[in-house]
């Protein structure tokens, strides 16, 4: 109900109404100019924080001061209510529906001859960052996925509740959502502000109005998909709504980009004041770490990533591939023919990666001992703190004291690319501390994945610049690379081609993941694990930039039901119906691991394999969230190393193509390792008998004695003794 407040018309909330409040509101211009008044937002309409006395105490209030309008808008507002009045009414609606907005106090208008001369909306002040500013802090300072996911899990459901209540905001930009935070850092319920463009309906909000609101939410593409999914109660974003939202988003952001032409004076003022166009990093510079999966997150959507691609870089990579193809093919065929034909000593060929977090060191060293103290990989990440580097150095030193071979991996982030001096300082800080305690160093990580911060071959070359000096300073230290990931060998060739002059790798390292939902023998085109290993060997054999050795520095399988800890759940959250389709069972993981190790090492094409990681809930040999409980894969690896850690691979027996029977020797004894890609088969007993051998004992993949002689998808082991 409209009331008279001196020279103003307006209304005061019942809980605030009283003579003292009325008197202060009537002199609002006076106390807005008090010394304690603080500007919160400057623009055409401005917002200030002021103080109002309530029963002898001062309360902070937010006052939105609406600017003068043209005559047409005044005529319209005279009939439907001013912006201040509409803001007040909308806030009352939200409060009545248990939705969060700063408590409405009053609205005041001063009209004269049909013109709106002054207009104010007063609400309780809330000391909170806007969604926009909170995101800017996360993007630029924290660079961590966890707080971003926490805030999305607050904002998206709140927007959904807003819409379910029949409320259309009309200007739902990131700046108009406040996110209070508790003392412990937890995000609280979002609070919606700037309500003057809102509408309320008695029936459910239409998809068109939902789309118009959602289109103003600004997030990188992959995280926008997450936001939509959370908004949809963790289900797939409805297709009709998606279509409307896509069109609305395209129109709105095109409209925003064109604002410089519609508001040239405003644009000029921003240019003079050097006001950044956005508080967020550019698309290419988004980089957020996820500790659960130990990797950066995919931040951009496909279209956003495509816009960042350098076509000339892609063209150069393709040309290098075409140039190298004939020689590479010939070497590939020659090397393929040598598969499983030469003895291979397995001693210290299998390593595991440890986590240098202080809480992990003690239990992991105990577990490592149970494996027989195999070689270890330790990571140092550029984005980490000096304290974290110090913890990793301490772990390396402890491993050195136990005579355990160590390889370290030095991982870049986007900041390393943007700030070469910081990257150089990182290398020259870490390497001198561990140079005498490690065997080899891997420089950079997954350079062919933009989420790791590298968009161009030139950027990779710049990161490798300091390595030449380090290699001169530490001639006994092996530097390996380029550590590309997956079945993408064109980037491997491109990376080797742009190494600084005079720099060669001591080995070709690669993150050789294969079918992450299936067996290592499964083919991607014509390439299974074996063929991919051969191709890597062929590249190393033909390149002057790297010695002819292949090191797999990372591999694993993602586990089923690991949720947000799974490395293939990117971008971090997925509708519930998809979760079951991702990953393998713990038993499959153990089987695939053993088969992978045998295929890569016994074929003779890979010198070393480091398993990623010893402890990790979503992909490790041990479940770190369950008191470091060993999984079947841990038991399987422990037995494999006990049986073959000091053994020599001798030969592969002739069998059906999908059956593998590998022979090993150790201390005068003979052993077989056998499995089928699918189904079952029988050991070649006739061939063994003709060779003068018979099976003495047999073990399951995890070391349990068995009587069966049937070969299945689960690897089995057999000790041979002379027949008769």
In short:
The protein has 724 residues and is an alpha+beta fold. It has 4 domains: 3-124; 129-280, no CATH class; 311-556 and 605-629, Alpha-Beta Barrel (TIM Barrel), CATH 3.20.20; 651-722, Immunoglobulin-like (Sandwich).
CATH topology of the largest domain: TIM Barrel
Percentage of residues in helical conformation? 25-40%
Helix- and strand-based class?
alpha+beta
Number of strands: 32
Overall form:
elongated
Strand order across the largest sheet: 16-17-18-19-20-21-22-23
- The number of distinct structural domains comes to 4
> Roughly what is the average pLDDT, rounded to an integer?
91
| Content of β-strand | 15-25%
Q: What count of helical segments does DSSP give?
A: 25
Could you list the spans in which at least 5 consecutive residues all have pLDDT below 50? none
- Termini separation (Å)? 107 Å
Gyration radius from CA atoms, angstroms: 32 Å
Q: What's the architecture of the largest domain in CATH terms?
A: Alpha-Beta Barrel
Largest sheet: 8 strands, parallel, barrel
The level-1 CATH class of the largest domain: Alpha Beta
């Amino acid at each position: 109900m409209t009331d008279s407040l001196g020279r103003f018309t307006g209304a005061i909330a019942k809980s605030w109404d009283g003579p003292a409040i009325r008197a202060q509101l009537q002199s609002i211009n006076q106390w807005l100019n008090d010394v304690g008044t603080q500007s919160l937002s400057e623009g055409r309409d401005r917002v200030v924080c002021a103080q109002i006395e309530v029963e002898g105490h001062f309360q902070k209030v937010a006052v939105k001061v609406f600017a003068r309008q043209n005559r047409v808008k005044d005529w319209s507002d005279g009939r439907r209510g001013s912006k201040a009045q509409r803001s007040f009414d909308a806030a009352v609606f939200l409060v009545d529906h248990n939705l969060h907005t700063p408590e409405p106090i009053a609205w005041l208008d001063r009209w004269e001859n049909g013109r709106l001369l002054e207009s104010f909306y007063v609400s309780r002040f809330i000391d909170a960052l806007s969604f926009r500013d909170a995101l800017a802090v996360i993007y630029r300072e924290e660079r961590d996925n966890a707080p971003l996911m926490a805030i999305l899990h607050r904002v998206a459901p709140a927007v959904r509740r807003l819409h379910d209540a029949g409320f259309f905001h009309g200007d739902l930009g990131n700046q108009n959502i406040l996110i209070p935070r508790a003392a412990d850092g937890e995000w609280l319920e979002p609070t919606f502000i700037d309500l003057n463009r809102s509408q309320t309906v008695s029936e459910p909000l239409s998809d068109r109005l939902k789309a118009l609101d959602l289109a103003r939410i600004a997030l990188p593409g992959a995280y926008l998909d997450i936001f939509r999914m959370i908004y949809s109660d963790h289900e797939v974003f409805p297709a009709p709504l998606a279509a409307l939202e896509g069109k609305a988003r395209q129109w709105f952001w095109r409209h925003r980009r064109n604002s410089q032409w519609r508001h040239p004076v405003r644009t000029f003022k921003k240019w003079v004041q050097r006001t950044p166009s956005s508080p967020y990093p550019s698309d290419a510079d988004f980089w957020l770490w996820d500790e659960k999966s130990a990797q950066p997150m995919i931040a951009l959507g496909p279209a956003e990533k495509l816009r960042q691609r350098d076509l000339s870089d892609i063209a150069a990579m393709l040309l290098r591939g075409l140039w190298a193809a004939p020689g590479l093919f010939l070497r590939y065929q020659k090397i393929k023919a040598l598969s499983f034909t030469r003895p291979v000593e397995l001693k210290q060929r299998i390593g595991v990666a440890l986590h240098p977090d202080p809480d992990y060191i003690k239990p992991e060293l105990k577990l490592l001992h149970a494996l027989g103290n195999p070689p270890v990989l330790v990571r140092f990440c550029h984005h980490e703190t000096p304290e974290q580097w110090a913890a990793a150095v301490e772990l390396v030193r402890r491993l050195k004291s136990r005579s355990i071979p160590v390889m370290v991996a030095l991982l870049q982030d986007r900041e390393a690319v943007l700030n070469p001096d910081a990257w150089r300082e990182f290398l020259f800080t870490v390497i001198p501390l561990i140079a005498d305690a490690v065997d080899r160093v891997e420089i950079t990580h997954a350079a062919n994945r933009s989420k790791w911060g590298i968009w161009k071959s030139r950027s990779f070359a710049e990161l490798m610049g300091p390595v030449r000096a380090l290699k001169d300073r530490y001639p006994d230290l092996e530097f390996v690379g380029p550590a590309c990931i997956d079945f993408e060998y064109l980037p491997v060739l491109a990376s080797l081609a742009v190494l600084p002059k005079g720099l060669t790798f001591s080995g070709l390292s690669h993150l050789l993941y294969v079918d992450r939902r299936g067996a290592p023998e499964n083919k991607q085109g014509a390439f299974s694990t074996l063929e991919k290993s051969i191709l890597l060997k062929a590249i190393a054999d033909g390149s002057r930039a790297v010695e002819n050795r292949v090191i797999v520095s990372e591999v694993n399988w993602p586990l089923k039901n690991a949720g947000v800890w799974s490395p293939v759940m990117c971008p971090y959250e997925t509708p519930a119906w998809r979760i079951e389709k991702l990953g393998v069972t713990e038993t499959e993981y153990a089987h695939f691991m053993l088969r992978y190790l045998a295929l890569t090492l016994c074929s003779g094409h890979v010198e070393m394999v480091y398993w990623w990681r010893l402890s990790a809930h979503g992909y490790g040999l041990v479940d770190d969230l369950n008191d470091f409980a060993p999984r079947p894969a841990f038991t399987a690896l422990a037995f494999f190393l006990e049986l073959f850690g000091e053994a020599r691979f001798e030969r592969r027996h002739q069998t059906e193509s999908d059956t593998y029977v590998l022979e090993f020797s150790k201390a005068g004894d003979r052993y077989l390792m056998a499995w089928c890609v699918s189904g079952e088969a029988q050991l070649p007993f006739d061939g063994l008998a003709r060779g003068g051998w018979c099976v003495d004992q047999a073990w399951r993949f995890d070391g349990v004695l068995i009587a069966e002689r049937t070969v299945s998808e689960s690897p089995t082991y057999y000790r041979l003794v002379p027949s008769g």
